[in-house]
Amino acid sequence: MEVAGGPRAPEPGEIRALKQCLLSRNQSREQYGVAASSLEELRNKACDILAIDKSLAPVTLVLAEDGTIVDDEDYFLCLPANTKFVALAGNEKWAYNNSDGGTAWIAQESSDRDETDSGPGSKWKNVARQLKEDLSSIILLSEEDLQMLIDVPCSELAVELCQSCVAVQGLQNMLQEVLDQREEARQSKQLLELYLQALEKEGCVLSKQQESRASYGDERDAVDSGIRESASAIALSRQVLIALKEKPAPELSLSNQDLELVAKEDPKALAVALNWDIRKTETVQQTCGQELSLRLQQIQSLHSLRSLSARKNSLPGEAQNPKRAKRDLT
Hints:
Residues 17-96 form the CIDE-N domain. Its main location: cytoplasm. Heterodimer of DFFA and DFFB. The protein has helices at residues 39-49, 73-78, 111-117, 123-133, 143-151, 154-161, 165-215, 228-231, 238-246, 256-264, 267-274, 278-319, 322-329, and strands at residues 19-25, 32-36, 59-63, 83-89. Helix content is 55%, strand content 7%. The termini are far apart.
């Protein structure tokens, strides 16, 4: 059965599959089996079979299990066969009736089959029968049910669904796609939550830094108040200290002058200012020195290329100048 993307009434001449349903009145033990291809058709049959006065319209159909109002055509198509509906007329309110468990299922052909299907190993068969009756019920299956049908051998599931192995393999692939989409949605939600937590944490850090600036207006103060006095003894600016302490690769965000200052700074004083151990401080200083050397090499290479290019461009001009050539000969 094909389910459209949005609620719509059946077009004239369109043939739609009939869905088996059970109808009853509120607080009544009598129920009637009907077949309807749409929600409107089921509502009309409820008025006729249950002898509901037309003057009490509109008639509302609810699930006997929990009183859920069924007023959407797509939702009606997704419900399994033999779902029990209670028809409410006028201002009637749904009342729970414990004489029925709500959604009813087709009775099995024999009591032996009932006992067999009640075992834990045959749970997938019940889910397969539900899928066989209404393919659109895939959207109502839990992830556990989806995985269970995917893990069932293709040949066994084909026998249960009365389909070929090729068709069942395609069905299992579709079930896997549905399962993957749900997993992707879950991971996306988790990533979004982590991102929001990181933003909140960053906001707290910035707030603390602003409070620290307000309390310690001197630009020579350190990143926190615990190392302020020790940091004032070194030549590095507060911005450089923050970059060293917070950036994952501080050498890439510092200028050549700052790299030179970091590399030449006393390791012990810098370690105290950053509240680091001496080994970590020396490693960062060495990295900054290497970055500075690399930049200087690149600058020298660039100057050499420019000089070589300038000499090549000047040679043709000198050969074409007769006065210059004559002066060189004398």
